[in-house]
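fyi for ur records
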Amino acid sequence: MVSSSSSHSHQFAGLFARAAPAVISAGLLLLAWELCARYSGIKPTILPAPSRVFAQAMLNRQALIDNTIPTLRATLFGFACSLSAAFALSMLVDFFQPLRRALFPVFVISQTLPLVAIAPLVVLWFGFGLTPKIILVALVTFFPMLVALVQGYEATEAEIGQVLRAMGAGPWRVFVLARLPSALPYFFAGLRISITYAVVGAIFAEYAGAAKGLGIYMLNAKNNFRPDLVLAAVGVSAALTLVLFGLTVLLQHLAMPWERTDRQARGKGPGR
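which gave:
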């Protein structure tokens, strides 16, 4: 029990030590913003102070919640479709190498398309419902995960595959036992990159056309000359992104417990 408590306290201290620089820098930035807004003479309608933004967010919290739910729904559905498509296509590309030469140029071209031009067209084709938002979120987040998975498969040590094949394992079994586990670190790296784009993609899709959502809320607040409400919605979207990012990190810890064990072993060192 004592060793378990000591281990938990060490983990908490390590987590606090890693988070402290980010918390301090964010606090200093907010303090500088507050002082600048209060004492620079800039009107609140131009640059509202963080305290004003927070106060207005609390006063309008129900409207923010009502508009956050559609954005979160589009983000999660779009990201789920993107994840499923990236995983399925990465397996096809891994099993059938000619497909990589045929499809990857198309995927690269898809990433060069400007969303500012594509989003209105997608809304025009699919209407103002959930479908165009799912498509745009998937379009934004699909490619990083696909590339990460394909690179992860290629990082598999050749000797592992040779041993499994010598033991009679077929291509599918080699993929499940060797190539897929080797791709996990790459996959989670791509997942963390993609999830930061997902909320932005959903909000941008709402700008192009939607009935509700954080994008529409920001647009209405801007048209009403309420920068405090615009920044309140920006803060909500940033918090939403951080929560989703944190969930991906937690998922990685749960899916790869051996990685945490290796870090602890390296932290102890040979002489400790």
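Residues 149 and 171 are 17 Å apart (CA to CA). thats all i got for now
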